[in-house]
């Protein structure tokens, strides 16, 4: 993976977004969830024995997590591996410091790994991409300090040194649910466990905290979440596991959106019956925007009618879906209003500003509000769609490009953050690169129907 200081060659390259020649009709098999993979790797590195993590996502964010855990003393061995999927065996080791960790632009690495580093006696230094230095870190670093760790810095770059004792802490997690998840994930290994109390405006992305609690319980950790905005993790062992990672439902978003934009059909196999993934909300969101959404044996099928309805929606809980929903809104036949996502100004980029700027650059009418966007559909024209090194901005540009000739997405390679095979899979969905013979391959695969 590229180091943050050296930008990959061709990073500013423009990718001509393919226009759909007709309705898409494809089955899109997505690699594993970023959020599940990075939690599973971290819990395995802290567990009481070796774990197997199957069908884990292989991407920049998960490679960074794997590298961080190795640096801290765990042994991670890949077995079966394809471009975007891997089976890991993880053997925990004593957590050691004296190392430097690159978080890239990964929220899950910058917020989940420092509490693990606080178990080490030697200092661990953290840094990342230039854009990562702008992402909020203060609340979790303050919490680590209050729980006994030595922390220098309030944002990237910073240094953490243990040993941490744990106990009770109050923090404001309104800038990111990851502030809470990070403390809970390592909390069972703190001498006193951890009680996290949130105080401030509502915590966003709650399904992601539910995912954390669910995965901790699956690993035998006692978690009490019975009181709103308070989470208690008892100290104790984290059980080693054999776990298969669900497909990434947030990465399904642009592919399913293509069904709406083209009036076609996209099926995603292995859509879980029950899940804590935020992307599961797509079933309702896309239906509200005019799609027919059906569960088919083992999967989810979304069909578009050729028209997209505008939407009024609060995306506070599922904010990572905002770029795709905004792209659809720009192509809809009525106005849309997205609310509840003020905190995505602190995601990979200020997503509210970026979406408004890029939609308007193509001739659209998108207005920033304090906590979201108002989008009035207008005929769009081709032009450059800047991605700001943000994978979901890049895929939003691809969605618009399906219907608008001449859209050029800057740095499509940034999709490697969570889906390195995006451009190939997109072309295959559109029938541009032929059928993929590896339908059963563990990574991303697309079959034309
Ligand atoms: O815990 C996680 O895996 C995530 C939590 C959310 O972060 P925020 O709470 O900062 O939105 C989400 O947007 C991000 O993509 C992944
Ligand atoms: C917000 C996101 O990522 P991160 O895990 O870096 O916060 C995202 O993937 O949309």
TrEMBL record:
GO annotation, biological process: amino acid biosynthetic process; aromatic amino acid family biosynthetic process; chorismate biosynthetic process
What is the main EC category here?
transferase
Q: Which Gene3D superfamilies match?
A: Enolpyruvate transferase domain
Which E.C. number(s) belong to this protein? 2.5.1.19
- Give the protein family: Belongs to the EPSP synthase family.
Q: What does this protein do?
A: Catalyzes the transfer of the enolpyruvyl moiety of phosphoenolpyruvate (PEP) to the 5-hydroxyl of shikimate-3-phosphate (S3P) to produce enolpyruvyl shikimate-3-phosphate and inorganic phosphate.
Q: What is the designated name of this protein?
A: 3-phosphoshikimate 1-carboxyvinyltransferase
Q: Which source organism does the UniProt entry give? A: Thermobispora bispora (strain ATCC 19993 / DSM 43833 / CBS 139.67 / JCM 10125 / KCTC 9307 / NBRC 14880 / R51)
Gene symbol here is aroA
């Amino acid at each position: 993976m590229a180091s943050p200081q050296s930008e990959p060659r061709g990073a500013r390259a423009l990718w001509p977004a393919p226009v759909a020649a007709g309705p898409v009709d494809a089955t899109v098999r997505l690699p594993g969830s970023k959020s599940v993979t990075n939690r599973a790797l971290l819990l395995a590195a802290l567990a009481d024995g070796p774990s197997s993590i199957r069908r884990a996502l292989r991407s920049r964010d998960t490679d960074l997590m794997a590298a961080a855990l190795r640096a801290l003393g765990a042994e991670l061995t890949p077995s079966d591996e394809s471009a975007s999927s891997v089976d890991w065996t993880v053997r925990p080791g004593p957590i050691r410091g004296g190392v430097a960790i690159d978080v890239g632009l990964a929220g899950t690495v910058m917020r989940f790994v420092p509490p693990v580093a606080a178990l080490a006696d030697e200092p661990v230094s953290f840094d990342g991409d230039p854009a990562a230095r702008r992402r909020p870190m203060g609340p979790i670093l303050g919490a680590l300090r209050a729980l006994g760790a030595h922390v220098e810095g309030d944002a990237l770059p910073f240094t953490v040194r243990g040993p941490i004792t744990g106990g009770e802490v109050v923090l404001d997690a309104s800038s990111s649910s990851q502030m809470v998840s990070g403390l809970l994930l390592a909390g069972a290994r703190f001498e006193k466990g951890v009680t996290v109390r949130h105080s401030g405006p509502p915590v966003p992305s709650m399904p992601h905290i539910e995912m954390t609690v669910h995965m901790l319980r699956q690993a035998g950790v006692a978690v009490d979440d019975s009181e709103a905005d308070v989470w208690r993790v008892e100290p104790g062992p984290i059980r080693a596991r054999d776990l298969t990672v669900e497909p990434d439902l947030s990465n399904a978003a642009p592919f399913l959106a293509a069904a709406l934009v083209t009036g076609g059909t996209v099926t995603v196999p292995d859509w879980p019956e029950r899940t804590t993934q935020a992307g599961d909300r797509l079933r309702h969101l896309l239906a509200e925007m005019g799609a027919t959404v059906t569960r088919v044996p083992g999967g989810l099928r979304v069909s578009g009618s050729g028209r997209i309805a505008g939407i009024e929606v609060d995306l506070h809980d599922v904010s990572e879906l905002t770029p795709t929903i905004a792209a659809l809104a720009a192509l809809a036949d009525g106005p849309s209003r997205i609310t509840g996502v003020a905190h995505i100004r602190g995601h990979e980029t200020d997503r509210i500003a970026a979406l408004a700027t890029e939609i308007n650059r193509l001739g659209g009418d998108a207005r920033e509000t304090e906590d979201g966007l108002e989008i009035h559909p207008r005929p769009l024209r081709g032009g450059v769609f800047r991605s700001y090194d943000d994978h979901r901005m890049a895929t939003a540009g691809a969605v618009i490009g399906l219907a608008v000739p001449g859209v050029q997405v800057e740095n499509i390679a940034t999709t490697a953050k969570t889906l390195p095979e995006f451009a190939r899979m997109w072309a295959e969905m559109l029938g541009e690169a032929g059928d993929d013979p590896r339908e059963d391959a563990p990574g991303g695969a697309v079959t034309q129907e």
